[in-house]
Design a protein that fits this description.
By secondary structure, this protein is an all-beta fold. The protein has no helices and five strands. The chain is globular, with a radius of gyration of 13 Å. It starts with 8 loop residues before the first strand and ends with a strand.
């Protein structure tokens, strides 16, 4: 999460990814409102594709979940 941007990125197989790997943006097609910020992220311990993100700001949806990594 780039501070204050309300954007979230992913690098596939990060431990084996070569230097300079370009992350893919998860928030590009997701319904994140302008000005929203991520206040927390939780990853499933056995499945990296499952993510729960907490978004904070006034009058925005607070939770976002994915089971397929994006």
């Amino acid at each position: 999460n780039h501070a204050g941007s309300g954007r979230l990125f992913r690098v596939d197989d990060v431990l084996a990814a070569p230097a300079g790997s370009v992350p893919s943006e998860l928030t590009g097609n997701a319904p994140f409102p302008a000005g929203a910020r991520f206040s927390g992220l939780a990853f499933h311990p056995d499945d990296d594709d499952r993510l729960l993100a907490c978004v904070s700001n006034y009058e925005v949806s607070s939770l976002w979940y994915t089971a397929d990594g994006g």
